[in-house]
From TrEMBL:
Residues 19-124 form the HTH LytTR-type domain. It comes from the Bacteria. The keyword Cell division does not apply. This is LytTR family transcriptional regulator. InterPro entries: LytR-like, LytTR_DNA-bd_dom.
Length: 124
């Protein structure tokens, strides 16, 4: 007999594969696999997608973090959420690590306080 004492978190692919947002009065669904990273700009976020387009939404980054539990999206800086599946390289030679992505020339950054979480995810 198996006794489960706490809830089991399944990988995001077994749950909802989409980020659903209320974007200026209409709902927008974006596949996690289509997101490269999300950048905060004042009180709005810019979602950078794999097709080189971007979506601007009037939501703070903290609210997006709450919506992306059990997904490949991880906060790595106070202004960035990155898709861990889209990373090509991480440059650790600077104080703030620089993230480069597959098939994109855009960059994101990993701050010192978020490094342990990123390293933990990469070591899985």
């Amino acid at each position: 007999m198996l006794i489960v004492t706490k809830p089991v978190d399944f990988p995001y692919k077994n749950k909802n594969d989409f980020l659903t947002l209320n974007n200026y009065g209409k709902f927008t669904r974006i596949k996690y696999s289509d997101i490269i990273f999300i950048e905060s700009d004042k009180h709005r976020c810019i979602i950078h997608k794999t097709d080189n387009s971007s979506i601007i939404i009037p939501i703070p980054i903290s609210q997006i973090i709450d919506m992306t539990k059990n997904s490949p999206l991880i906060r790595c800086h106070r202004s960035y959420i990155i898709n861990m599946e889209k990373i090509s390289t991480i440059d650790k030679t600077t104080a703030t690590w620089i993230v480069k992505f597959n098939k994109s020339n855009k960059l994101a950054f990993i701050s010192r306080s978020y490094r342990p979480e990123i390293i933990k995810f990469l070591n899985k």
